[in-house]
Structures are given as structure tokens and as C-alpha cells.
Design goal:
Layout (H helix, E strand, L loop, with lengths): L6 E6 L4 H9 L5 E5 L20 E7 L6 H4 L11 H8 L2 H4 L2 E7 L5 H10 L1 E2 L3 E7 L14 E3 L2 H16 L3 H27 L11 H12 L12 E3 L3 E2 L2 H7 L8 H29 L5 H8 L3 H13 L18 H8 L2
Parallel strand pairs: 1-3, 1-4, 2-3, 4-6
Antiparallel strand pairs: 5-6, 6-9, 7-8
Helix pairs in contact: 1-7, 5-8, 7-10, 10-13, 11-12
Length: 345
């Protein structure tokens, strides 16, 4: 493995949702992303991984045994809990290879006391920073942060989100997050700033490096749910939040500055502006080439099917493309001159 301080490690829970989200979205921040195809093990195969040195490299890997809990709350043969030791066993002096290590974790698998203990073990980027989502990573796309959700399972919450985005955008939650990640990060950042200020006016909310701690304090005070991750338990969720944006703040180097909130906010806003300009370019492409089907658009724009479908829905809503109905073909509804009018409003 190439050592250096331009490499970052993200350890995730799921085998599908989290890796696919990170692989898709982090490239918009000018990062090279490598998703390791199998979960972590202690057999030393991680040494074989190679990075390029042309950009910041982000390595995304699934925690062992399909549950990151096994890593965070792992024990040795004497039944003594270990923390950073487990990271060292897996990566062989990780600080040599990585400028930062992020452990992306959902709160829904553990009690509040367990999460608090986990943060005490993993509270800095060098040894591993716990990046929490409450109750799960899908809450990035929560549509009503003021509501209270009550059910007998966390699966019910995820299913509800999927149904909402399917009915509204013909996407599941994961697809919506992939296509709108930067916008969602910006919204979550601003919302958390307001929430933290309201919770405690003395908190230094403009320091993003403190957001993991502040989120944990609110999480603990609200006592989100009863039960554990076993079946047939009662779930009450009245706090939906994520601090996923802290990963971007650290990797882009903003965390070293005093007012890193403004730096991160300005950066995320600049990415949104770039995406808007790029969307306009894609609109010009389909009009100039008379592209009305997803596949040729994907190939000419060099984008994924998920994002191509997302853009087609936007173009339909903006009146650039006709909506597709059974037995009918789409058609271009505007000229190139109209594109400027639509996007320069």
C-alpha cells in the first residue's frame, strides 16, 4: 500500500447502501473513491491495496461480519473491550497510511449508553471518528424533521421512507440520497447549527469538529427509543439527524481553520452551483441531440442510470421533456434558446 497523508478510510456497516452512496457521491468533491468488495477481516489482505497519489483517495470498506458493531464493541480473548487496537489489528499501523479514519454508524443497533461509550473510544480522526446518523443513514433524507415516528421496528421507518420517495420521485431512498447528497448535506449542516444553538447557546457551533459531540449530547437527552435491535420491540423516534458532512469538512482540509462552518457551507454551495450549471449543460445536450431515451443519454453524458433518470424527471418538471405515458414516446418540448430562459430565471 502507498503510504501518505492524502488517503482517508471510511468504514461502513452495510454491504450495499453505504458503499454505494459513498462511491457515487464523493467523486463530486474531486476525490478518488475505492470500494473494497468484501468485508474486513484480520487476515492481512488489506496490505495489498494500492492507491494513486494524484488526488485525495477515499477507501470505503465494510466492517467485519456485516456488523460494524463487532468492530466498535469487539473484545479480545480475555473478554476485555478494545477500541483503537481493533483498528490497528485490521490495518497494521493505520496512521502510516491514512490521514483520517471515519466510522460511519447508525444509532439504531445500540442503546444510548453504548453509543456514548463508542464515541469515547472513537472521538478523533486519527484513531477513528464515530460519524453517527440517527436513527440510520437513510435519515439524511428525512422529509419531516419535526415529526415523531413510532413503530415496532426500524425496518418500518426505512420502508416508510422508501414509499415516500417512490410516490414523490419514483426513487427509493438510497437513489434519492445519491442524486441529492450535496444538497442534503448542506441542509443538514444548517439545520444542525440551528438545533445546536437552540439546545445550548454556549456551544461553539461554528466548529464542525465539535458537531459529533453535540449531536451525541442531544441524542442522549432525547432518549429516542425503547428496546434494542432485536425483533418485536418498540421504537419511538423524535430526533432525526446526521453529521455525515464532517467527513467532507475533514477531507477537504476545512477542519484546520477556525470558522470551518463558513468554509464548509460556502464549499457545499459552490458544488450546488456547479451541479446546476452541469444540469443546464445536460439539458442542452438532450435538446441539441434530440435525446429522449435514458440509455443514449447515459452513454453520451457518461453518467449512471440512477442519475440519468433523476435528470430526466427534472427535465420533465421543467417542461424540457414531455412526460412518458404508456404507449407514448417522450419528445423535446423546447429549443436551445429556451434552455437559457429556463435556467437563468
Amino acid at each position: 500500500m502507498i503510504s501518505g497523508k492524502r488517503n482517508y478510510l471510511i468504514i461502513v456497516e452495510g454491504s450495499k447502501t453505504e458503499p454505494s452512496i459513498f462511491e457515487f457521491v464523493l467523486r463530486q468533491y474531486d476525490l478518488d473513491v475505492v470500494v473494497y468488495p468484501t468485508p474486513l477481516s484480520f487476515n492481512g489482505d488489506f496490505k495489498k491495496i494500492q492507491f494513486s497519489n494524484e488526488k485525495e483517495n477515499v477507501f470505503v470498506i465494510q466492517g467485519p461480519k456485516n456488523r460494524l458493531k463487532d468492530l466498535i464493541f469487539s473484545k479480545n480473548k480475555d473478554d476485555i473491550e478494545i477500541s483503537s487496537e481493533s483498528i490497528n489489528r485490521l490495518f497494521f499501523e493505520p496512521n502510516v497510511y491514512f490521514a483520517g479514519i471515519f466510522i460511519v454508524y447508525d444509532s439504531d443497533h445500540n442503546s444510548i449508553d453504548e453509543i456514548e461509550a463508542a464515541y469515547k473510544k472513537f472521538s478523533n480522526m486519527s484513531d477513528g471518528l464515530l460519524v453517527l446518523s440517527v436513527p440510520c443513514i437513510e435519515s439524511i433524507a428525512e422529509y419531516d424533521f419535526n415529526r415523531k415516528y413510532e413503530s415496532n421496528s426500524f425496518i418500518g421507518y426505512k420502508n416508510e421512507l422508501n414509499q415516500y420517495y417512490d410516490s414523490k420521485f419514483s426513487q427509493n431512498t438510497m437513489e434519492y440520497i445519491q442524486c441529492n447528497f450535496n444538497k442534503l448535506m448542506l441542509e443538514n449542516l444548517i439545520r444542525n447549527i440551528k438545533t445546536f444553538k437552540k439546545e445550548n447557546s454556549t456551544w461553539e457551533v461554528n466548529d464542525i469538529t465539535l458537531h459529533p459531540l453535540y449531536m451525541l449530547k442531544i441524542y442522549k437527552s432525547k432518549n429516542l427509543c425503547t428496546g434494542t435491535c432485536e425483533e418485536n420491540y418498540h421504537v419511538i423516534i423524535n430526533y432525526f439527524a446526521t453529521i455525515m458532512y464532517t467527513i467532507i469538512c475533514y477531507i477537504k482540509g476545512f477542519a484546520k481553520e477556525i470558522d470551518n462552518f463558513k468554509l464548509l457551507k460556502d464549499y457545499l454551495e459552490s458544488i450546488e452551483n456547479k451541479k446546476y450549471e452541469q444540469e443546464k449543460e445536460y439539458a442542452c445536450l438532450i435538446v441539441s441531440k434530440s435525446i429522449v431515451n435514458i440509455k443514449p443519454f447515459m452513454e453520451m453524458a457518461s453518467i449512471s442510470e440512477i442519475y440519468a433518470k433523476h435528470l430526466f424527471r427534472i427535465f420533465e418538471n421543467k417542461g424540457i421533456l414531455s412526460k412518458r405515458f404508456p404507449g407514448q414516446k417522450r419528445s423535446i418540448l423546447v429549443s436551445l434558446e429556451d434552455i437559457d430562459k429556463i435556467y437563468d430565471k
